[in-house]
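Q: Now give one record:
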Amino acid sequence: MRFQESWLRGAETSPTSQQNLEATLDLALGLGINHVETARGYGTSEAQLGPALARHRRDRFLLQTKVLPSEDAKEFEAHIEESMRLLRVDYLDLFAVHGVNDEKSVELTLAPGGCLEVAEHWRQQGRIRALGFSTHAPQPLILRMIDSGRFDYLNVHCYYLFQDNVPVLAAARRQDMGIFIISPSDKGGRLYRASAKLRALCEPLSPMVFNDLWCLAHPDIHTLSLGAARPTDFEEHLKVLPMLADPAPILDPIARRIEAVYREALGDAFASHWRDGLREWDELPGKINVKRILWLRNLVLAFDLLDFAQERYISMQPDDIWVPGARAESFDDAEMIAALPDSPFREQIPAMLREAHQMLWNPKVRPQP
């Protein structure tokens, strides 16, 4: 996704871009990083990876691509075939139904005669070795997919600054599923450009290395997306390797320090219970994503992650399945309070949402993929 040249599928690519991609791939394989992850939706990525991967023995890498579910299962199958043709392989180590983020995409995936049956047939033929799904969905939908018992692995968001999906990891463990963490360095707080406050809290590690260590120390997390755009992007991540044998002595003091600052900034009660009783965005007035907005607000108040929070906030749209829910631009206080009967902070939440909107809304910011 990050070392492609263009988000426009079929666009012309330059020799410079291809050389950078090949150098990044070659270094990864040389370091022992052998999981290559892409998707049909990542612009020129598959077309550029195909010739780059063809320069290496097929048993040197594990290849994952992903395809969005379609209304027409035959179209979905045609998309898989096209992806494999571009990638120049005759089998996929891992294949995921991409972006299973809402009720409709769950139905398209699981329905009789639907997309999952196509992928299962390909697995039976040996053209797919392991079958998974990627998701940004609310937890109940993710658990529904897991509990179907039809998947080998899952691509999901879960990292230090966003631990809401820890119960998802436990559910996946019960099904013996592999866990691939989506974008821990970028969506986990844009950690390669972390605030001075978070950098100080994570010393002697960088925020990126701390987050890598937290993820890989979790027994249910198996693979992290590194999001490398150039060969040098591996350097910081590699610092985590010597710590993996015994992470607790360095990980635990940093985590305690970060948690203490979080509680001091938000207050103990709110820090511990702000999520309690919050309904999903599509059940709230104006489809305002209260849970996401309060999370972003908390990251700014505790860790000064304003740039990250503003970019995520401006990306929100009520009908967007990737960054879902409306911003807190306009709402009625009484209506919002009434819609949150189980929240211990329902009376304070309208004021918090207004504070968050004033803090996070910056029309000069551009959404990032």
